[in-house]
Amino acid sequence: MNKLILFGMVVLSVLAFSGYKVWAQLREENKNVNTENAKILIAYYSYSGNTKEVAEAIHEKTGGDLFEIKTEGSYPDEYRPMTQQAKKEIQDGYRPKLTTSVADISKYDIVFVGSPNWWGTITPQVSSFLESYDLSGKTVIPFITHGGGGVQNTVTDMTAQCKGCNVSKDGWVGYGSRTLGISGWLEDLGFKK
User: Which residue ranges make up each domain of the chain?
Assistant: First the structure.
């Protein structure tokens, strides 16, 4: 019996160390983000205000420029019709026309891109932003808000749509407008204000 317990403890120790090594490797990879003297843009789409709150928390810690992605069209006020319309737009690959613009995207080195998770992906508004600007050569750092769905395909889809840019593997994902952990996450990425 004691051998079985000892074996279990060894296995758990190996798994814990392996997990730590993976975490340390990811952290080391993210140190490649050169934050010193970088010009930062924080672009986001927020339907209910949750993603906006996270964007403002990032802005407070990094000092980057805030940019709210706004587009033509609107959603019904009632929840059910709104979700049905948004789901159909995603299924159809709809890209609404932007009504706000970044004056000079070329001056930014790092672009945080924020989106709610809608049906496992980024919103059509964020897709329109990614398709409208040349972000090649820039570091793109995703931040995703959700109502229980987690990250799903949001970062994968953002990476696929962001041609030629370096999408950080360590984006931020949070429930609703909760900004717990934002400071530590940004410090791990090398942002200190």
Answer: 1-29, 39-189
What is the chain's Cα-based Rg? 19
Over the chain (193 residues), the average pLDDT of each successive run of 10 is 48 36 41 75 96 97 96 94 96 97 96 97 98 96 95 96 92 90 93 77
Distance of alpha carbon 40 from alpha carbon 62, whole angstroms? 8
Q: How far apart are CA 38 and CA 58, in angstroms?
A: 15
73-80 LR contacts (CB < 8 Å, sep 24+): 75/47
Pairing verdict, β 139-146 and 166-167: parallel
Separation between Cα atoms, residue 115 and residue 163, nearest integer Å: 18
**CATH architecture of residue range(s) 39-189:** 3-Layer(aba) Sandwich (3.40)
pTM score of the predicted model: 0.82
The answer to whether 119 and 148 are in contact (CB under 8 A) is no
